[in-house]
Amino acid sequence: MKVIVRLIGSYRKLLPPGTQGSQVEIDIPSGTSAAGLLAQFDVPLTDDSVIVVNGLSVDWGTTLAEGDEVSAFSAMAGG
């Protein structure tokens, strides 16, 4: 099934080389969790990471569905 992965801020560098912009569409097996998907991009699985699926904040164990848009970014901010 196809999903869109959007990596924001410091996570953008984790996208595959040659990716235009901050997102990529990929095929994943049915039943893949948010953690399983983002582990493919080496996104840190820590409390500092925020995951949003279709505009809603979710936990790492959320099972993804066809067409989901998954965004990840670090909640850490300088100031």
Overall CATH class: Alpha Beta
Tell me the strand percentage band.
Answer: 25-35%
Shape: globular
Q: Quick one: CATH superfamily?
A: Beta-grasp domain
Q: Domain count, please report it.
A: 1
Number of strands: 5
Query: What is the rounded Rg?
Result: 12 Å
User: Which runs of at least 5 residues are low in confidence (pLDDT < 50)?
Assistant: none
Largest sheet: 5 strands, mixed
Q: What string gives the helices and strands in order?
A: EEHEEE
As laid out across the biggest beta sheet, the strand order is 2-1-5-3-4
Helix content range: under 10%
Coarse structural class: mainly beta
Number of helices: 1
Question: CATH topology, which one?
Answer: Ubiquitin-like (UB roll)
Alpha-carbon distance between the two ends? 40 Å
The CATH architecture can be given as Roll
Mean pLDDT: 92
Description:
This protein is mainly beta and about 80 residues long. It has one helix spanning about 35-40, and strands spanning about 1-5, 25, 50-55, 55, 70-75. The protein has one domain: Ubiquitin-like (UB roll), CATH 3.10.20.30. It contains 1 helix and 5 strands. A 5-stranded mixed beta sheet has the order 2-1-5-3-4, with no helix packed on it. A hairpin with a 2-residue loop joins β3 (about 50-55) and β4. The model has no long low-confidence stretch (mean pLDDT about 90).
